[in-house]
Design a protein that fits this description.
12 strands, alpha/beta, 8-stranded mixed sheet, globular, TIM Barrel
């Protein structure tokens, strides 16, 4: 089977101050066995993530070989991701495929490697899988034509954990600005794409009421509020303390934001049963599909 993405470098290189280490993966579909959570498989076309979110739980994963302190400084494109997906296509019949839990499928290097697009093309061709994308990047709009072709088989969960871009610059230093994200959500919604707002992990929100109104006016059909999950001896806690942002760890604060959003999107709010887990159920349950989760 011919390579399904644009030709890209196969040797280590640098991309926007990140070390790029292309690799051949051994597997691409990770089963999700928790029936309560729903979806069938996660698919991550990359390891690592250039957005460098300081709170990301993936920092502790054993395969993050560069260590937590190097998070956001390296990326490993899985060059054979489309081929692996094609070879395992029988697994995803009538299943939900989630892109992605361990990386943003639309981080900047997707412009060059197009692995996410190649995988989406295969999933579209298969005809039966339901697809849930989760991103914080306007780069998702480069595939708008492809996303439309999925019809109601595809949903997008979009991450906006704060209303303050100065907070974003600290906790998500290389991720897109907050105004850009709102504009992206609006474009997706206007194009007929089902979009859910992922407020997870919840960061400082200056005005919960205004934030909730902005969410409702953006065209999202649902929202998710999730608490931060700290790692063991997490250095991110020191950052929160230095900035005076410890309130995001308080149940009362999370509830305040949750209630504000619920008032504006009463039928589409979801909240975690286990509040310390950083997961996102970005979409309301449908009769014929499992819910999309993060």
């Amino acid at each position: 089977m011919a390579r399904l993405f644009l030709e890209a470098p196969t040797a280590p290189s640098l991309f926007q101050d990140c070390l790029v280490e292309p690799e051949e993966a051994r597997s691409i579909l990770r089963p999700q066995r928790d029936e309560r959570l729903g979806f069938g498989f996660t698919l991550s076309p990359y390891r690592g993530c250039a957005h460098a979110c300081q709170y990301c739980y993936v920092r502790e994963y054993p395969n993050a070989l560069h260590g937590p302190e190097a998070w956001g400084k390296w990326i490993a494109p899985k060059l054979n991701a489309p081929e692996l997906l094609w070879s395992q296509r029988h697994k995803v019949h009538n299943a939900t495929v989630f892109l992605a839990t361990a990386t943003d499928p639309y981080q900047p290097i997707e412009r060059e490697y197009r692995l996410t697009r190649a995988c989406l093309r295969i999933l579209l061709e298969l005809g039966t899988p339901r697809v849930v994308l989760h991103t914080r990047s306007a780069l998702v709009l480069q595939d708008l034509d492809l996303l439309r072709d999925f019809g109601n088989r595809l949903s997008v969960g979009f991450s906006i954990p704060t209303d303050d871009d100065t907070v974003r610059q600290v906790v998500e230093p290389k991720a897109p600005p907050i105004p850009t994200r709102w504009a992206t959500i609006e474009r997706l919604a206007r194009s007929g794409i089902e979009v859910g707002l992922s407020v997870t992990p919840l960061m400082p929100v200056d005005n919960p009421q205004a934030f909730a109104r902005r969410a409702a006016s953006s065209g999202v059909s649902s929202a998710w509020v999730g608490r931060l999950r700290l790692l063991d001896r997490d250095p991110f806690l020191s950052l929160l303390q230095a900035k005076g942002w410890e309130r995001i760890l308080e149940t009362e604060y999370v509830e305040e934001v949750r209630q504000a959003i619920q008032r504006e999107i009463p039928r589409g709010l979801h909240t975690a049963r286990r509040p310390t887990q950083q997961r996102c159920r970005a979409f309301p349950r449908k009769e014929s599909h499992q819910p999309g989760l993060f």
